[in-house]
C-alpha cells in the first residue's frame, strides 16, 4: 500500500492526499473549517485507517469549538430569558384583562419579549448551522 501522504497545515497531522478534498488540509480540518464532507474516522493504533489523521485537533479549531459552545450556551440562556419575559408579560396581561383593562406593562412585555424571543431563536439556529463562527 503506497498511498500519497501529505501534511496538514492546520493540525500538522499527516493524511492521505486522496482522502481530502483540499490540498493543504486534512479531511478533518477541511470539514471543520470549510464544511467539506467529513471522514467518519476509524482509529487503529492512533491513526484513522481511512484518512491517516492522527486525531489531534489544532489549537485554533479547538478554541473555535469552545467559543461556539460558549456562544451557544448564552444563546440558550437568551431564549430562556425571552420565555420568562413572555410568561411574566402574559400574567400581567391576564390580570389586566381580569380587572377590565389592558395592562400596558404586559403589552409592552409581550412585544419586547416576543421580538427578543425571535431574535434569540434565530441567533441560536445560525450558531448551530455554523453561519456564525
Ligand atoms: Zn488537519
Ligand atoms: Zn479519517
Overview of the structural elements:
The chain has helices at residues 27-34, 59-98, 104-128, and strands at residues 5-7, 14-16, 43-44, 47-48. It has 133 residues and is mainly α. It has two domains: 5-48, no CATH class; 61-128. The strands form two sheets. The chain has a two-stranded antiparallel ribbon. Strands 3-4 form a two-stranded antiparallel ribbon. The mean pLDDT is 92. One zinc ion is lined by residues 8, 10-11, 13, 25-26, 28-29.
* Overall tally of structural domains: 2
- Report the uncertain regions: none
What do the pLDDT scores average to? 92
Number of separate strands: 4
Ends distance:
39 Å
SSE series: EEHEEHH
Count of alpha/pi helices: 3
- Give the helix level as a range of percent: 40-55%
Give the C-alpha Rg: 24 Å
Largest sheet: 2 strands, antiparallel
Strand order of the largest sheet: 1-2
Helix vs. strand class: mainly alpha
Name the shape in a single word: rod-shaped
Q: Indicate the proportion of strand residues.
A: 5-15%
Ligand list:
zinc ion
Amino acid at each position: 500500500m503506497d498511498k500519497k501522504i501529505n501534511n496538514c497545515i492546520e493540525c500538522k497531522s499527516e493524511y492521505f492526499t486522496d482522502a481530502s478534498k483540499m490540498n493543504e488540509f486534512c479531511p478533518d480540518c477541511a470539514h471543520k473549517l470549510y464544511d467539506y464532507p467529513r471522514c467518519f474516522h476509524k482509529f487503529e493504533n492512533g491513526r484513522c485507517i481511512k484518512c491517516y489523521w492522527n486525531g489531534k485537533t489544532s489549537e485554533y479549531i479547538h478554541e473555535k469549538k469552545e467559543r461556539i459552545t460558549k456562544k451557544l450556551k448564552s444563546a440558550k440562556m437568551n431564549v430562556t430569558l425571552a420565555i420568562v419575559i413572555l410568561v411574566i408579560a402574559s400574567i400581567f396581561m391576564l390580570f389586566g384583562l381580569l380587572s377590565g383593562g389592558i395592562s400596558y406593562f404586559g403589552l409592552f412585555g409581550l412585544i419586547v419579549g416576543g421580538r427578543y424571543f425571535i431574535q434569540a431563536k434565530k441567533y441560536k439556529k445560525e450558531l448551530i448551522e455554523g453561519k456564525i463562527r
